[in-house]
Amino acid sequence: MNNLTLELRRYQNPVTIQKILHNAKTIAIVGLSSNVLRASYFVGFYLKRHGYHIIPVNPRESEVLGEKSYKSLREVPIPVDVVNVFRAPAALPGISMEAVRIQASSLWCQFDVVNEQGAHIANEGGLSVIMDRCIKIEHARYIGRMHWLGFNTNQITSARGGLQ
Asked: Which of 2, 16, 17, 22 is most buried by its number of CB atoms within 10 A?
């Protein structure tokens, strides 16, 4: 096991993941595309369908999933609970600074979006950080249908509940 794997574990805590998913209402998706073939579109569609308010943040888009797209996090006019990132790892420090400025609660970095400096900036700014995890998959695991069936939760139960 390499050092990167060891370091990532602290950004993949199941309890933190569940708290974020259960408490979030508004998710700004940085890099959300209107291209239905992109992962960001599918994730945004899924989250919106499951009751989250989605805010696209992409300077190349004017509207995605029926929501106005903003050029940057600073332009978003309402409070944001989670900043979900679909960008190259090198962009993460700047995105983390913006997330801290807008007082988001959490920074969620999708698969392969790993940048220690970005994580450090967000942590120092008081944000919870999840890195190298897909928010859609984690939602399905802990809240959605995978959870109902008992997969990947370390317990099988017929009772639906909150945090374990």
From this structure: 17
